[in-house]
């Protein structure tokens, strides 16, 4: 969650920079297309460093690299898909024993997933 907050901070910094760059280039009387490109470039110049710095602080606090973080998030997404399949298997249960087994598997996988998040 805090990693996503770095994207919000990047947008909070990037949007005003983009607006200022756009209006500055509009005052200098460039064509609209060039003004638009300058505004987008201003957003990128404001967004990327801010997002990188704030996300780096969070990753350093967690002792992770970006590559490790993206790998973990990818694995969490895969687990969520598998949990959905386990949840769908409740429909195919034919006995109480099977239901208990599937329920235990689902609770265990959900507990592990929430602990890792």
TrEMBL record:
Annotated keywords: Hydrolase, Membrane, Transmembrane, Transmembrane helix
Keyword Chloroplast: no
GO function term, MF aspect, one: hydrolase activity
Taxonomic superkingdom: Bacteria
Residues annotated as transmembrane: 7-24, 30-50
Keyword flag Membrane: yes
One of the Pfam families matching this protein, by short name: Halogen_Hydrol
Protein name as it appears in the record: 5-bromo-4-chloroindolyl phosphate hydrolase
Origin organism lineage: Bacteria, Bacillati, Bacillota, Bacilli, Bacillales
